[in-house]
Amino acid sequence: MAESSKPEPKMEPTLRLGSTAPNFRSNSTNGVLDFYKYIDENWAILFSHPEDFTPVCTTELGAIAKLAPEFNKRGVRLVGLSANTVDSHKEWLDDIEEVTSARPAFPIIADKERKVALLYDMIDHQDATNIDEQGVALTIRSVFFIDPNKKIRCILSYPASTGRNSAEILRIIDSLQTGDKYKITTPIDWNPGDDVIVHPSIPTEKAKEIFPNVRVVKPYLRFTTLEN
After folding, report:
1. Which of the residues 3, 108, 152, 223 has the least number of beta carbons within 10 Å of its own beta carbon?
2. Is 57 assigned a catalytic role?
3. CA-to-CA distance for 12 and 192, rounded, in angstroms?
4. Is 196 in contact with 226 (CB distance < 8 Å)?
5. 95, part of any domain
6. Domain tally for the chain?
């Protein structure tokens, strides 16, 4: 008699660049948030922090709040998250404002049960000290860049011990939006206004018709300046 085969364990889908960002509903500092409805047809940045009332997170949320007008100019919806309650988030906002002179107005998700954190694989698997009062792992510092088609375009993951670079988050948005608009790529250390790279799929002669100037360094490396 043949042995019955055991069913394969169900694997959660892995989020990769190009994956569709999962939708969710959750309580937040701005009320119940339906993620898809909130971001609508805009760009979005979903980012997690380990816990409220912690030093690194306080500096990060203040920095993002200061840059919020720049994200708004670019049509980007910001959404924060940590494994704390809405009441905790709201109390913590006072500390953030006191310490950084900036108060986040964007929603911060209450994810005490780690539902969204598990959905987006934000759980800390390496730092045994990054746990809550019940010994359950908290979140790492994840950043998901999501385009208007709900596609994940970039993912950043930082350990709890390392604060993020808010200017880099804004720079990545600029690179992604510029690349989509002009069909170009951006080189190392690029910032808006710097030369960009002609996409490898565009022949040089065609590139000279599209862009105001093309500087050929190698057949595969062509720089150009974008007109404002």
Report:
1. 3
2. yes
3. 38
4. yes
5. yes
6. 2
